[in-house]
Design brief:
By secondary structure, the chain is an all-alpha fold. It has a domain of about 45 residues. The protein contains four helices and no strands.
Length: about 120
Amino acid sequence: MGKTIAILIARLLFAFAFAQGAALMQGRSSDDPQRDYSGNRPSSTVLLDRLDARSLGALIAFYEHRTFANAVLLGINPFDQFGVELGKDIARRLADGTGGDRLDASTRALIERAGI
């Protein structure tokens, strides 16, 4: 029984993941501006036969290269943006123990859950 439930859950999760890509591609017209999606939005879905150190490394390298290639096409430096700098500042404060009290509840909960 447990294996059957796991297969059903896996199928459902795949269905949701694939549906998001389809929704980005198809879009939807609506008179309600909040529900009007133009479609024709690119997305990537990567399926791995197994997750090991090699495939995870390849996946990370793929996304790093994708980020760099898009940045070159857009004429920006994705590794030196203001949001990245803010993240670095927050990380430095967390590392030296001075920034935890200024974080939002969600981020504090993640840090507690991770045990750091």
